[in-house]
């Protein structure tokens, strides 16, 4: 890497999509952002937005066969803006990798051995790790000389004590199959808990925070002095809160009941709980804007879905309050957490005894900035902190290659 190499490309490769951002780490400025979706279909689409002077959004539609073709198309778009991947200014490529197991507690330069370990984790992340691996391989083929860094969704949660991470099942069986709670959205929980400390004017080591990452996927975490001590997602991202399409917590016996009584296969139950449950299963919609609109029109199904969503959220706030003992802030982030004021108000309603209060006027403000929504007198801060997983991946990648 040359001294002038200050750019980092962040790649988030899904099974049929690639999200990307190119950042200049001198000032964390975004130079370009984009998305390739429906890879492998006839109707693939690339949306590229250069954020340098004079840039405007560009779109390509038509078949993009695979991740290699997708990344080539991205490279062409970047080159068009004078930001090509062959530039000596590119310092590294940072990859979001969903599952790092217990081995990876920090960002890691990708070697053959690291790749082999990410592959070994495919059985515990069958939907995510294969796509991440494809993205890494493609990027390596394009720039074999460049450091490629894996930033793991699970890493922030590796500080969880065994009491929180272990399921109470037979230890030999659990260990043989690496069954334990890993947690996900770690990059977001790390970023948001740190930014919350900053908002409070404190060092992360001084504060205890409950982070509520409420997007289409949703998870809560309890962070003590900057370290995660519990989180709501488990072996997979299915456990915990009610999500857009995932059930979150259910009695595990539901699965064998469905097998024995409803004659459903394991794969069908997997699809039911991951894709057809949560808000969509309860009321047919997973977009909180639509659910709120329906509630305003008197729709009872939408109202019940909202109430179930809030009930679960409240249970986790209470549980993590007890886990932490002392809480300095409860913070909302991601699509729902950052935008849905009624969710924030309902989640802490009635929790005044715990020191949790939301100021209605502050809560109603729409803003992209990190902000407090609790009144000045509140014992516990309630905050909204926009998450930025790409910036966090870029920061961690850049710090590692400059270490
Ligand atoms: P994410 O996964 O973080 O991108 O969050 C996506 C979800 O955020 C969507 O499914 C919506 O439910 C929710 N969302 C986005 N914008 C709004 C908004 N203005 N009001 C309420 N919910 C929103």
From TrEMBL:
**GO BP term (any one):** acetyl-CoA biosynthetic process
Ligand binding (Mg(2+)): 12, 389
Q: What is this protein called?
A: Acetate kinase
* A GO cellular component entry from the record: cytoplasm
- UniProt subcellular location: Cytoplasm
Q: Which organism is it from?
A: Streptomyces agglomeratus
Q: What's this protein's family per the entry?
A: Belongs to the acetokinase family.
A Pfam family of this chain: Acetate_kinase
Provide the top EC class. Answer: transferase
Q: Which cofactor does it need?
A: Mg(2+); Mn(2+)
Q: State the EC number(s).
A: 2.7.2.1
Its annotated pathway? Metabolic intermediate biosynthesis; acetyl-CoA biosynthesis; acetyl-CoA from acetate: step 1/2
Q: Where does substrate bind?
A: 96
| Active site residues per record | 153
Q: How does it assemble?
A: Homodimer.
